Each structure stands twice: as structure tokens, then as C-alpha cells.
Amino acid sequence: MAKIYAVIGTKGGTGKTSTTVNLGSILADMGKSVLLIDTDFAQALSKYFNIPFPANAGLTQLITRADPAGCISQTGFPRLDIILNDDSLGDKGGPVLSFLRQSSSHMIYLSLALQKLAEAYDYMFIDTQGASGLVQEAAILAADELISPVVPNYLDSTEFITGTVGLLRKLLPAPGMKTTIAGKPLAPCNVVINKMGRTRDAKNVVDHLRKEFDEAGDGLVRVLNTVIPDLAVYNKAAGASEAAHHFEPARPTYSPSAKETMVNLAYELQPKLTGTEPAWEV
Ligand SMILES: Nc1ncnc2c1ncn2[C@@H]1O[C@H](COP(=O)(O)OP(=O)(O)O)[C@@H](O)[C@H]1O
Ligand SMILES: [Mg+2]
After folding, report:
1. C-beta of residue 75 within 8 angstroms of C-beta of residue 20
2. Residue ranges per domain, the chain?
3. What is the rounded distance in angstroms from the CA atom of residue 263 to the CA atom of residue 30?
4. What angle do CA 236, 5, 272 make, to 5 degrees?
5. 230 close to ligand 1 (CB < 6 Angstrom)
6. Which of 7, 18, 132 has the most ligand 1 atoms within 8 A of CB, as the residue to mutate?
7. 3-273: CATH number
8. Does the pLDDT at position 127 exceed 80?
9. Per-residue pLDDT, 62
């Protein structure tokens, strides 16, 4: 039974696509079968890998027909598959958004489509655009859990508290109901601090976020202990169409390597994996 994560946030550039790739890749290297789904019309995830033979169909068919058949492409890495975003018009009148606009039942087609793949994968990661909108909402409704990378500065953390959390509250089940229109509880949100620097300001922002959500304790948001440092390897790996931990498995002297960080992130999200070592061909 696949566990479905949506990687979300109402801001661009926080690391949603990087987290999708790096976390998906470390889980695949731990022997799990993983599906990445690109719902961002900017198609950054679709362009991340070099895919010589893409499937004939992609996100458009997945959402508008709730049918995953023929939509899955191979990334070239073992156990790591991808559904490409083939809707290049996107919010300028593309088929996906026109479809979702029709009614609230249309909003759960993505969820229905992914349920059909639940036995084929261990984990799914839905990458989303960094702005609130119907596609991001459909992804949240389809998910079992959410991951929201937050960069520890004042503007990004404020945008998380008002924008992302505001969006989640909007999607909560109606009063007296336990489930959303997708028939399951609203997915809880795991905040992962990304691009952590060594300044006092960054530390203050992280402390503030931890206080705000760990003490509020309404179960909607938790701030993970694992923190992703600000490291050139994440950007360099993207340029090489590689997972960060493949690109630089060695530990820099001043902070954990990408491998250590991604392993810890995987263990924290899925404690049952603790002790599972990733392995890959070089
Ligand atoms: N931990 C990190 N350290 C340094 N650069 C990062 C880190 N995470 C992401 N980046 C870089 O930041 C930019 C935005 O990341 P991306 O994953 O595309 O964000 P999003 O999908 O939220 O828009 C990219 O150039 C990426 O390589
Ligand atoms: Mg992105």
C-alpha cells in the first residue's frame, strides 16, 4: 500500500522539487519502489532527469481521466519512476486546470488515479507549484502526509504561517466531518527546514517555528528535527540530473553530507525504515 506525500508550499524556491527528487531517490536506494508525480506547470521535476523514452501520456491523462495507464516514465534510476507534466499551457488555459475548475468531484480525480497505483509502489511524492491553486489543492487532497520545505528567513517563515497553513485550514473537513472530499482525513504537514545557514537570524526563525507549532499542538503541522543545510551540492546535483547523495556522498567538514541528511529525513518520516542503508551503483 503506497504512502502518498505531497510536497507543498505557497512559495517558490523553497526546495520542493529538490526534496521530491532527493527523498524519492534515497528511498529507491533503500530498495523501495517510488513514483514521483510532477503537478507543477513549470515542469522543473519533469526536466530534472534525462528521460530518453518518455511515456506517451502524463499528468493530463492521469488527472482528467483518473487513469494512470501509459502515464509512467522511467527516470533511469532503479525503482524510481515518474509521471511527467505534459500540460505546458498550465494556468494559461491548459487542460488540467480547466478540468479541475469544473466541480469539487473533479478535484479528487488525482486521488482516485493514484489509488489505482497503490499496490505498485511503496512511496509516491507529488511535486507542486509554489503558489496556492487548484492543482496544489488536488495534490493535498490526494496525500496521506505533506512535506513543506521552509527556508529559515523572516519572509519565508511568515509566508508559511499565513499562506501554506492558511491553505491547509481551508481544506480541513467540514464541521462534524472526519474526512475531506477525498474520503480521508486532511494530511498532516511536516515542515523541513531547508537551506539552513549558520546565522543567528536563521536559528531564531527556526526556534520561532518550532515554538509556534510544537506548542500549538493541533496535529496539523510539525517541524521535523532533520534540517537540510544550505549546500552547493543540492544545486550542483540538479545541474547534473542526479540525486544529491549520489553526487556528493562524502561529508563536508562543516555539515552533514546530503546522504546523511536524506537518510535522517527518510528515517524521521518513516521510523520503520531506521537502520536501512541506501545502496547504489556508481
Ligand atoms: N539545501 C539546499 N542548499 C542549497 N541550495 C538548495 C537547497 N535546496 C534547494 N536548493 C536550490 O534552490 C533552488 C530552488 O530549489 P527548488 O527545489 O527548485 O525549489 P521549489 O521547487 O520549491 O521552487 C534550486 O536552485 C536548488 O538547487
Ligand atoms: Mg519546484
Report:
1. no
2. 3-273
3. 9
4. 95
5. yes
6. 18
7. 3.40.50.300
8. yes
9. 98
